[in-house]
Amino acid sequence: MKLSELAEKTFSTIGQGSADLEITSAAGLDMAGGRDITFLANPKYTPQIMTTKAGAIFLNEGAAIDRDDIAVLRAKDAYLAYTRALREFNPPRGIEAFVHPTAVIDDSADVALDTEIYANVVIGKNCVIGRGVTIYPNATIYDGARIGPNSVIHSGVSIRENCEIGANCIVHNNSTIGSDGFGYAKDERARWVKIPQVGRVVLEDDVEIGANTAIDCASVGETRIKRGAKIDNLVQIGHSCTVDEDALICSQTGLAGSSVIGKRVILAGQVGIAGHLKVGDDAVLTAKSATSHDVEPGKVISGVPGFDNRDWLRSTAAYRKLGEMAQRLRAVEKKVREME
Amino acid sequence: MKLSELAEKTFSTIGQGSADLEITSAAGLDMAGGRDITFLANPKYTPQIMTTKAGAIFLNEGAAIDRDDIAVLRAKDAYLAYTRALREFNPPRGIEAFVHPTAVIDDSADVALDTEIYANVVIGKNCVIGRGVTIYPNATIYDGARIGPNSVIHSGVSIRENCEIGANCIVHNNSTIGSDGFGYAKDERARWVKIPQVGRVVLEDDVEIGANTAIDCASVGETRIKRGAKIDNLVQIGHSCTVDEDALICSQTGLAGSSVIGKRVILAGQVGIAGHLKVGDDAVLTAKSATSHDVEPGKVISGVPGFDNRDWLRSTAAYRKLGEMAQRLRAVEKKVREME
Amino acid sequence: MKLSELAEKTFSTIGQGSADLEITSAAGLDMAGGRDITFLANPKYTPQIMTTKAGAIFLNEGAAIDRDDIAVLRAKDAYLAYTRALREFNPPRGIEAFVHPTAVIDDSADVALDTEIYANVVIGKNCVIGRGVTIYPNATIYDGARIGPNSVIHSGVSIRENCEIGANCIVHNNSTIGSDGFGYAKDERARWVKIPQVGRVVLEDDVEIGANTAIDCASVGETRIKRGAKIDNLVQIGHSCTVDEDALICSQTGLAGSSVIGKRVILAGQVGIAGHLKVGDDAVLTAKSATSHDVEPGKVISGVPGFDNRDWLRSTAAYRKLGEMAQRLRAVEKKVREME
User: Fold this and answer.
1) Fewer Cβ atoms within 10 Å of its own Cβ: the N or the C terminal residue of chain C?
2) Which of C138, C139, C194 lies at the smallest CB-CB distance from A208?
3) B23/A250 Cα distance (integer angstroms)
């Protein structure tokens, strides 16, 4: 692709270099070669500009560069422009319509014609599989489940009874959508009585679910992951939770039941969210933090239990010397006693 | 179901309303409609009594109510009564005996007649599958495994060699029962030598295992989950652990090897239990806590490493101002130096 | 096996007992019987020497024993010698070459003759499966993947496009090798744009991966797990990470993207490693710790964020009394004010 065409497709402008330069791929600063375009987004990596072998680079408007032997595309957001370039160079492969003969599809299921149903896929009663869907081998779709157009279900995934997957979703390998919520009442003998879990899970459009993640159905009603939310590997979403639009939930984070995660919230890795609470829109919980209280919109929270991130940074700095602080407190107490 | 019949089946008594009222389902305060029964267990939700559209409500004996347009069933434990109502309205579906023609069952396996064996299930040599068992698609039962009566194995589950599942167990999707314990010795070249893991896992009766959970077999001997224990999604149980009766282990908690979890212990979400220790009966570890020491029966433990929950609450409150405390300590030290 | 032969095979020497004693198996101190050999490595278990029913025991050179009715094999490292004994008594079972008729293998795949391909395994286009490989039921090997000689892939595993597994590897059940990395750029409407993940995962030789673990492919390039590294259950390895030789990563630990874990590093359970950092050779992160900075070689790190383990032990001890410390600080401040 010519640099000029790439600029157009990534909403960027040529800062230096020939409009006719041929670019064939995109890669990071350290891996890019002469026909690749790379990017600088984090100023921390600025020194690598001098050593990269890339033929071109996306730079944020205003970012300086001290070389003239590399083509430059200027963008409002170099990372976004790079992402778009990478998408141009790696378009999704087209669908070959087929149903592998070993797939087991119930007669009552409604499977669109232009789908890819791989070997050993099992599709239950009354399922509805939309146009352009790919289901990889050994995935299991329980009775009554629905998968919207152009979604991709990877091998080993289980989609439980009556769950609904929207359009353009991706569910990675070995994830479980719609397993029973973890709910029990204690009986008179202090034994656990299982609370029926007869609800379902709904993924709206453009949702991506990582590998080996588990999303529980509601006891009654539904667990809902809204449009554009992205969930990483090994995440736990408890029954009756709502994850709102464009939220981002990183690996190994867990939500107990009935919590509501707001729009564009970011939960970093290994975060814990207790049950029945609300994390407001645009809030961020940093890695390994947890909350058992509501979080206000836009707040950045850290620690267990979580509190304001700036306070937490101060507390963690002091914590490193807490043993010494305890000693110093004893010393000053002693002096004061002596002075009395 | 008439209110009077429901009262009888849930060991409750009519506090107000007509014995002939028809109730057809059960749901939470916010979701229930006119033919539903709901419940109030946590006083925090008392205000919702005024707005619920439920036709009836379970209340604890003694709990006040300011409405007379809703039927009331009084119970010792409203949550337990509600659970029982939900179970009445959602009885387990009956078994249709079948073996799907694509299931691969070794000739030496002993499979009871009235089982449901779904498509692409694989059952190895000398397995024993009891009466009333359901095995969903794409599950794999390795050689020598046994599954007791009325248990349910969901799709994608793997049950490894010689493991034993009791009666009335449920294993949710993509969980692994009996993978190798994580054990190595370091050799003379500082390389890891694998310790053979030739033991097995035993789940006793009435055990439920969530989705994407991994329970390792013992190196020698067994890992045992005792009667009535409940384990959530994405939990790690290391080799040779024992989880005693009616213990409850929440999502993303991990047990290293050879630990013993007592009866009715509750491990909340994302808890960590080090190896070779004992958590006494009825102890509770709150979310995200960890222990590398034995825990006495009945104790409530928090933090990393865990200590008494009330002390921990005090410590976490002070921790939020630890940066300020460090400053104040410096200030008082300075004053004392000046006064000397 | 005679004691003399066992001594030879475990590089140990007879300390007491008859060279002709027959030993048939190996087990822990509490489980061993008269024909078993056991071991003592951790002095904490020394009292159990008096009560063990084992016929023989491995002891470190120099370790005392007060019984003469038990055979003793002396070794430099009793635990390693015991491991070797256990391996002698539990040799790997041999390969029976077969391809189950329900396995679905693309014509373009190159599968060695002496492999075990179990029921419902699916192997995609252009895959290469080496000699002596075992693939258990319901595993899925995507197009272009390669599996080296003598490796074992357990049921439910997914190996994604173009990933490469070395020789003598084991991948336990329901793990995912090569799922998409978790990478998005935010667009002008604050929606997430997926960054293509077109790299792959390489496991070098002698790598073992636990159950329900997820290892993401790189966006561009590769995620690499080097020779001899061992990874436990439910671990997250983000895109473009490198795990160096003989590293040990325990259960539920997570690595964000692009981090490098050095040789022989030990990451204990539930550890978190942020992105784009380096953990030096032989470093140790204790359970539940996390780091967002580089870790120097050989350091032992604890806490969130992690710092020197000895300082952390002091800080955690003081932390238990932090509420009281806050009170004492207030008291001493008051006294000083009064004295002024």
Assistant:
1) C
2) C194
3) 43
Q: Which of A100, A154, A172, A239 is catalytic?
A: A239
Residues ≥6 apart with Cβ < 8 Å to B91: none
Q: What is the pLDDT of residues C181-216, one digit of tens each?
A: 999 999 999 999 999 999 999 999 999 999 999 999
Q: Which parts of A220-299 are beta strand (E)?
A: 222-225, 230-231, 236-237, 242-243, 248-249, 254-255, 260-261, 266-267, 272-273, 278-279, 284-285, 290-291
Closest-CA residue to C231 (of C292, C182, C177, C280): C177
Q: Which residues in chain B are contacts of C172 at CB distance < 8 A?
A: 176, 179-180, 214
Please judge whether B340 and A335 are an interchain contact, meaning their C-beta atoms are less than 8 angstroms apart. Answer: yes
pLDDT for A92 equals 87
Q: Which B positions 219-258 lie with beta carbon below 8 A of chain C?
A: 219-221, 234, 236, 238, 252, 254, 256
* Residue B132 and residue B112 in contact, taking contact as beta carbons nearer than 8 Å: yes
Is C278's Cβ below 8 Å from some Cβ in A?
no
- When pLDDT is cut at 50, 70 and 90, the band that residue C340 belongs to is confident
ipTM score here? Answer: 0.96
Write the pLDDT tens digit of every residue in B144-165: 999 999 999 999 999 999 999 9
Q: Is the peptide bond before C305 cis (omega within 30 degrees of 0)?
A: yes
| DSSP summary character for residue A45 | G
Cis ω before A91 (30° cut-off from 0): no
Q: For a pLDDT cut of 90, what percent of chain C falls above it?
A: 97
Residue A26 backbone class (left: φ over 0; alpha: ψ -120 to 50; beta: rest): beta
pLDDT in tens, B103-121: 999 999 999 999 999 999 9
Q: Could you say which DSSP state residue A153 is in?
A: E
